[in-house]
Amino acid sequence: MTAQLRTVRQLGDPILRRVAQPVDGIDDRLLTLIDDLIWTAEKTNGVGIAAPQVGVSQRVVIVASRPNLRYPHAPLMEPTALINPEIVARGDRRSEGWEGCLSVPDQRGPVWRHDEVEVCYLTPAGEIRQAVFTGFVARVLQHEYDHLEGVVFVDRVTDPQRLLSEADYFAQLTPAPAK
């Protein structure tokens, strides 16, 4: 069975504002969803994705950091599926960083996140794991976890005037040519 590209729901779709339901069993449908989420994140240049973003109100997220067109400096990691994730600890340090979202196309905004989070979750094999995520990957995990709670990153932007289009965001990162 090959993974399928799923349609990413856009801001305004009510599923993005619902609290996702816990997964109550790992079956072939769930494993197919996970494969599809990984494929969809890769093909849409995402570094993570949550099940509600493809119209499935279940507590499943993928963290799949890798350099791509939208995040050229993202660290490389194997895509990781987290079923029923729970953030069990947050580090004391927080930092502001620019975020975008597949469900909010062509927007970037600064969001404060914890620099380190500890998460307990089920793997697709049904094993309970606990892991610590740091830096950019911790930011991705918190962003995706928010989707399970019905929160979108623009809700966390403290000054909406700082929201930028993707073009303006990348323009501010690129130094002006020397004259």
Structure description:
Helix content is 21%, strand content 28%. With 179 residues, the chain is of the alpha+beta class. The strands form two sheets. It has a five-stranded antiparallel β-sheet, sandwiched between helices. The chain has a two-stranded antiparallel ribbon with strand order 4-5. The chain is globular, with a radius of gyration of 16 Å. It starts with 27 loop residues before the first helix and ends in a 6-residue tail after the last helix.
Binned, the helix content reads 10-25%
Biggest sheet overview: 5 strands, antiparallel
H and E string: HEEEEEEEHH
Q: What is the global morphology?
A: globular
Average pLDDT level: 95
CATH architecture of the domain at 14-90 and 112-150: Alpha-Beta Complex
Q: What spatial order of strands do you see in the largest sheet?
A: 1-2-3-6-7
Characteristic key phrases:
179 residues; alpha+beta; Peptide Deformylase; five-stranded antiparallel beta sheet; two-stranded antiparallel ribbon; 7 strands; 21% helix; globular
